[in-house]
Design brief:
Distance between the termini: 29 Å
Strand content: 5-15%
Helix content: 25-40%
Number of helices: 10
Number of strands: 10
CATH topology: TIM Barrel
Shape: globular
Structural class: alpha/beta
CATH architecture: Alpha-Beta Barrel
């Protein structure tokens, strides 16, 4: 099924000449994508995303057309399909229920061989302290694929939040986090040190990634990444650098170019960020991610995974290191079972 609300973005992506797929047999787990219906959404940033509808068939169309060997995916929290009634803290469980339904659709094999939503992370308000436990348990009950949450953290890491965070440890759940402000990684490192048994997954290279950033700003980002990389329980999602952040748009965004940029040119623009994150964490604590359909406003699914393969080649990664970054780290962190 097609949706006219998606036409502007899809027409722009159709302007590119499809690239030859690099290493088409390399197994890939995409550890970060969203699914949603934003046609009636008025809350930012979701209201401004150009892919208004992204369901099972939409992501499978991207996967099938890309030519890369996507074997599994992980659903990422995005505020989709919350319940409209019931206790407010529990309404977020609707997102996990929805993602589990997509996983069931995918397991049928009707939509293709890739297994969607093999892992799921939702959200919960950890400021509830110990009272967040029923919410987390409801997520776990809603899906056997539920692995953790993504939520912001307070700058003072106050007692209520820390009590809620402790429940992640008790329930063997992971903690995804993203803020456009990479300076917050210094505080995230304190959280990682306080709970060394909770896996922290840093999203999207840790903050807004500006290919035109000055050397000074790049060094501040690098120092922040180094701070969280010290935590052995932290891993990095190496991707998300292609996204718009608020009113700011990268130079390869749909609003900045008449046609999409190719993977070689994009690699040249972004490589210093990608290689620094890989060096800081090591390939065994890094995973490439699509962040679709957010990053779809800048790059097609095929070109994006070509970009990642170019980065891996330029970095001189071994076969073992490539396996970690394209599938192994994601499988370990989200406790997935490779076919």
């Amino acid at each position: 099924m097609t949706y006219p609300e998606n036409d502007h973005l899809l027409n722009w992506l159709s302007q590119e000449t499809p690239e030859e797929v690099l290493e088409p047999d390399l197994p890939i787990i995409d550890p970060h994508h969203h699914l949603w219906d934003l046609r009636t959404t008025t809350i930012e940033p979701n209201a401004s995303f150009q892919q208004k509808v992204y369901f099972c068939e939409d992501i499978m169309n991207d996967i099938d057309a890309c030519g890369h060997n996507i074997v599994q995916t992980v659903f990422a929290q995005c505020g989709a399909f919350y319940r409209v009634d019931g206790p407010e803290p529990m309404r977020c469980v609707g997102e996990t229920e929805f993602a589990h339904g997509i996983a069931a659709m995918s397991q049928s094999g009707i939509y293709g061989p890739a297994r969607l939503c093999a892992g799921i992370f939702g959200t919960a308000d950890l400021r509830l302290g110990k009272e967040v436990e029923p919410v987390l348990k409801a997520h776990i009950a809603a899906s056997s694929y539920f692995r953790g949450i993504r939520s912001p953290f307070p700058s003072d890491l106050n007692d209520d939040f820390m009590a809620g965070y402790a429940k992640l440890s008790e329930l063997n759940l992971s903690y995804d986090n993203y803020s456009p402000n990479f300076e917050r990684l210094h505080t995230l490192a304190k959280l990682g040190a306080a709970f060394p048994d909770v896996t922290i997954i840093v999203n999207h290279l840790g903050g807004t990634i500006d290919p035109d950033a000055s050397g000074e700003d790049f060094n501040k980002w690098r120092a922040a990444v180094d701070a969280i990389a010290v935590c052995p329980n932290a891993v990095m999602k190496v991707g998300g650098a292609q996204q718009r952040v608020g009113a700011w748009e990268p130079p390869f965004h749909i609003n900045q170019r008449p046609a999409p940029m190719g993977s070689e040119e994009m690699c040249e623009l972004l490589y210093r960020y990608y290689i620094r994150a890989i060096e800081a964490f090591g390939p065994d604590r890094c995973m490439f991610e699509s962040n679709f359909p957010v990053d779809k406003e800048s790059v097609s699914y095929r070109t994006l995974w070509n970009l990642f393969k170019r980065i891996a080649a330029k970095a001189g990664l071994s076969e073992t290191e490539k396996t970690a970054m394209f599938s192994g780290t994601a499988a370990q962190v989200y406790r997935l079972h490779l076919k």
